[in-house]
């Protein structure tokens, strides 16, 4: 298959690697040059712009930051990809934007599924992500062999029409953001109560925070959040999408405000910095 992959960030680079391993023709593009060298060494072609990347593509995968970045790139795709090409948007964008983008590309005879992923860089490297797909049955059927390259087959799900995957994904990340903020305030409460932080973290690891702390405890212990897998910037974007989509979510809105405040000192760092910020600085 001829595949164009646009967006070689932390996730996109790993996902595009699986496309090459499967033997497909791969053309890649990233806004900032210099991210493609490893993929090029393995046989990918690097395009100079999105239009060149998609010129002969049967499938166009987007793995960008959020809805605004897709809004920047997609018109260039729509004007250049062959009619009938299928756009597979892995970006976390929210349901409204997914519907907007499906309509945009349909005007150029292209097809669109939203296919945001659940899981971070570890599962992306292993090809065991969850993938939540919104689109027609035909488009899902045409996307699924690629989705199985980065998703575990039992976790690749066709969940409804365009936008349905993005709606589910927002709920997943809203919960994650609230959890990160909640843990931060648990640590702050423990400090106010004079508890030993390490002993408190040991006990919290046995509670509903266990899954989160199994991954993030080393960062919380060291106060060094620079080994980013999922950035605080992305988390702030997703909390903002959730609040905008629902109108009123007071707890989530408070977590969004905290994430935005934390960005002042932790931009680019892992989203676990939200816990650290609320525990120590917020
Ligand atoms: N990281 C995770 O654990 C994870 C897990 C699940 C879902 N996601 C979602 O997956 C998507 C990608 O995540 P990531 O961690 O790979 O993000 P990332 O490392 O921050 O990469 C973002 C990518 O978007 C590109 N980009 C940003 N703005 C752009 C614009 N205006 N025009 C063109 N390209 C633009 C960046 O290009 P430059 O290199 O030029 O900046 C980069 O390639 C996001 O929607 C995120 O929410 C991430």
Structural shape: elongated
What's the gyration radius in Å? 20 Å
- CATH C-level class of the largest domain is Alpha Beta
The helicity comes to: 55-70%
Distance from N terminus to C terminus (CA atoms, Å) equals 50 Å
CATH architectural category of the largest domain: 3-Layer(aba) Sandwich
Note the beta-strand portion. 5-15%
Helix-and-strand structural type: alpha/beta
List each distinct ligand once.
Answer: NADP nicotinamide-adenine-dinucleotide phosphate
Count the E strands: 9
- The quaternary state of the protein chains shown equals single chain
Number of domains: 2
What order do the helices and strands follow? EHEHEHEHEHEEHEHEHHHHHH
- Numbering strands along the chain, what is their spatial order in the largest sheet? 3-2-1-4-5-6
Mean pLDDT: 97
Poorly predicted ranges = none
